[in-house]
Design a protein that fits this description.
Layout lengths: L2 E6 L5 H14 L2 E6 L5 E3 L5 E3 L2 E2 L10 E4 L5 H7 L1 H12 L3 E5 L3 H4 L15 E2 L13 E2 L4 E4 L2 E4 L5 H13 L1 H9 L1
Parallel strand pairs: 1-2, 1-6, 2-5, 6-7, 7-11, 8-9
Antiparallel strand pairs: 3-4, 10-11
Helix pairs in contact: 1-5, 5-6
């Protein structure tokens, strides 16, 4: 069983969060959406309401293999502002487990003046929403659909949600499964 946790915060980009959930579930992952807002009902950046599977306070992360942070505003700010969320991400990454972030959310992994500095990208290549590269404080900012460097995968935004999700499937299940889901 491959367990994946997708964090949801008010203002998350719906396509980035739900595409990952959809494609990973098609691949056979057990995907749990976890609200970091203290309530199950989450309001997306474009007015789509989503009910999370679990509250952060009740979620269990030790058996997960991958944590995913969708972007969107103010969703990204809501993710990064919660020190228990950032502490969980830091500890998860320190164990060598997979962490993925798309659009503005890679800024949560970096260091900037707005969010708590995690510094997870200091020695890594990464990508993010165009114009936010300075907030990554990464070794190399790239301009491509996604970047995987070690246990961290980052992606640019809503237009790269499918390649991003397929890359996560490749990491968890291999090339064959990723190709199968892409073709379907």
């Amino acid at each position: 069983m491959k367990k994946v946790v997708v964090f949801l915060a008010d203002g998350f980009e719906e396509v980035e969060g739900l595409t990952v959930v959809d494609l990973l579930r098609r691949a056979g992952a057990v995907v749990e959406t976890v609200s970091v807002m203290g309530k199950l009902q989450i309001d997306g950046a474009h007015g789509i309401q989503v009910e999370a599977d679990e509250l952060f306070e009740k979620a269990f992360f030790d058996d997960a293999e991958l944590l995913v942070l969708p972007g969107g505003m103010p969703g990204t700010l809501n993710l990064g502002a919660d020190t228990t969320v950032t502490k969980t991400i830091r500890e998860f990454a320190a164990k060598g487990k997979l962490v993925a972030a798309i659009c503005a959310a890679p800024s949560v992994l970096g260091e900037n003046h707005i969010l708590e500095a995690l510094g997870l990208l200091k020695e890594k290549a990464a990508c993010c929403y165009p114009g936010m590269e300075e907030q990554l404080n990464c070794k190399e900012a790239k301009f491509c659909s996604f970047v995987t460097d070690g246990n961290i995968t980052t992606s640019r935004g809503v237009g790269t949600a499918i390649p991003f999700a397929l890359e996560l499937i490749r990491q968890l299940f291999g090339n064959e499964k990723a190709s199968e889901i892409a073709e379907s």
